[in-house]
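Good morning N.,

You mentioned wanting to compare the apo and holo forms, so I went ahead and generated the holo version with NAP. This is what I fed in:
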Amino acid sequence: MPHVITQSCCNDGSCVFACPVNCIHPTPDEPGFATSEMLYIDPVACVDCGACVSACPVGAIAPDSRLGAEQLPFVEVNSSFYPKRAAGVKLPPTSKLAPVIPAAEVHARRQPLTVAIVGSGPAAMYAADELLVQHGVQVNVFEKLPTPYGLVRAGVAPDHQNTKRVTQLFDRVTRHRRFRFYLNVEIGKHLSHAELLAHHHAVLYAVGAPDDRRLDIDGMGLRGTGTATELVAWINGHPDFSDLTVDLSHERVVIIGNGNVALDVARVLTADPNELAYTDIADHALRAFRNSAVREVVVAARRGPAHSAFTLPELIGLTARSDVVLDPSDHQRVLDDLPTAADPLTRNKLEILSALGVADARAPGARRPRIRLAYRLTPQRVLGQQRATGVEFSVTGTDAVRQLDAGLVLTSIGYRGKLIRDLPFDEEAAVVPNDGGRVIDPRTGEPVPGAYVAGWIKRGPTGFIGTNKSCSFQTVQALVADFNSGRLADPVAKPTALAELVHARQPEAVGSAGWRAIDAAEMARGSADGRPRNKFTDVAEMLAAAATAPQAPLRRRLVARLRDLAQPIVG
Ligand code: NAP
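and this is what came out, ligand included:
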C-alpha cells in the first residue's frame, strides 16, 4: 500500500524531510526540483509510514488504496518517475535532514535581527517561517490589502480548495509572538523603502508578479477582452477586481495561451455552478455563472500539443472533471507527436490527449459546456468594432487564417513583475536583479545593502506554491549570513517607533487580530450555506469586520504597551 502524491502537490518539499527512507524525489537539493511539475513517491522504497501525509500542507498524499477514481492515474505518474526494478528489490533506508540556516547571532551590543517582509503570499510566509525559527528574530509583514496570503487567496481557483489548505500553515506562522502583521499598508504609498530600513535590519520584498503579460495585437482593449488573471481575481473576490465587467452572454469564450491559469479559468467557466456554490467563490461570480450562456471555452495555444504549457497533474485533473475535446486536426497532431515525445512527462500528456473525444469544430457541447484544447493558432487580431466578436488566428507557420467567434477573449500568457520604487528593476526579465535573493545594483554589480527578494519578483512567474519554500530559504540564508557578518546596520529608529509611524500614516492598518476577525466573519458567513467561507469583496467591509476584533485583556495590553509604547493597529 505505497503512498501516492496527487494533483494538489504544492512542491514545498515538507514531505521530503518527513520521509524516513528518502523515497520522495526530486528533493530540493536535486537537479530538476525547481522545474519539476510535482514530487513523486517511489512505490518500491515507500514504507507506508504516512509521515508524508501529516507533513503535506495541502492534503495531496494518500495511500494508493484510498484514492478516488480520478486520482488513480497518479499511481502510474508517481512510479514512472523511477527506474523499473526487479520485483521484491527493496531500497536501503536512508534519510534526509532539512537544511538549517546558521542562527542569527546574538550580540550584546546589537539589536536582535528585525526583518520587514513586503507582501504576504507564499514566498513571504515561507520566509517569515524560516526567520521565526531563529532565536529572537522579529518579523513584520506588510501587505497592501486588509487580507493576507496573496495568490493563495486571490489566484488559486475556487474548486482547488485543497491547495488553499496551505493557509493553515501560514496562520500558524502568524500566531508566533515575534510576528506582526501590518495589513492594509502599502509600501511606496504609506511608507517608503528608506523608512522601512530605518526600522529594520533588512527589507525582504516578496511582492510576486502583480501585472499580466499583455498581448500586443489589434482589438485587445475592446469591450469583451481581458486577461485570465483578472478573471481569476474577480472569481476569487479580490477587491480591486470586484467591479470587473464579465460578459458571459455569448456561447463561446476564447482563452489565448494554455498554461495552468488558462486551464483554471476554462474549468471554472464550464463547471456546474451548483458545485462551485460549495467553494469560496465570490458571490458576484457565482451569480454570473448561474446566468452564463457559455457552452464552449477554447484554449488556444500557438505551438503544438507536445509543447503544451499546462502540467500533467492539471491535465489529469481537468480531463477527470470536465468535458474536454480536440479538433480532428489537433487529434492527428497528438498522434503524430507521440512517437517522438522528448521525455516521459510529455509522452504521458500526449497519451491523455490522444484519448480525448474528437469534436466537430462547429458544434459546442450540447449537454454541458465543454473545453476545446486547440493548437498551432497564433493570435493576429481581435475581431469586432464596438466590442469583441471573435479572434483571428494564423495557423502557426503558415499563411492560413482561422477565425473563431467569441463574446469574451481572454489572454493567459503569464504574469509580469512590476518595478518597486527605490529598487533596481530588470525591464526585460521583469524581476528585481538579484544574486540568490540579495538585490544587486546593476550599475556597480554590488548588493544593495539591506534589500532582498523572494518568490516571483526574484525568479520570475514560474513554479507552484511550495516552490517558494526553497526560494525563500535561499534568500533568508543570505540575509542571515549578511547580518552575522555585520553587513546589515542596526535600525536607527527605536523598536517602539514603527507602530506609531504606521498608525500616523495609515490609521486603518489591520493587525493579526483584525485579520482573524475578518477570517472568522467570512467563515461564519459561509457556514450557513455549507461553504468554507463567503469572502468580503470590498475593503470597507473587511475593515468593518477587522474592527470587531476583541481587544486583548488589559494585562496583556499593558505588557504590549510597555513593549511597543503604542498599540494603534486596528484589532
Ligand atoms: P505559463 O505557464 O507561462 O503559460 C503561458 C502560456 O502563454 C503558454 O501557453 C505560452 O505559449 C503562451 N504565450 C506566451 N506568449 C504568447 C503570445 N505572444 N501569443 C500566444 N501565446 C503566448 O503561464 P501561466 O498559465 O500564467 O502560469 C504561471 C505559473 O503559475 C506557471 O508556473 C504555472 O504552472 C503556475 N500555476 C500553477 C497552477 C497549479 O498548479 N494549479 C495554477 C495556476 C498557475 P508558449 O509556450 O508557446 O510560449
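The pocket of NAP is lined by residues 215, 256-262, 264, 301-303, 307, 309, 311, 314, 379, 412-415, 461-464 (CB under 6 Å).

Happy to go through it together on a call whenever suits you.

Best,
F.
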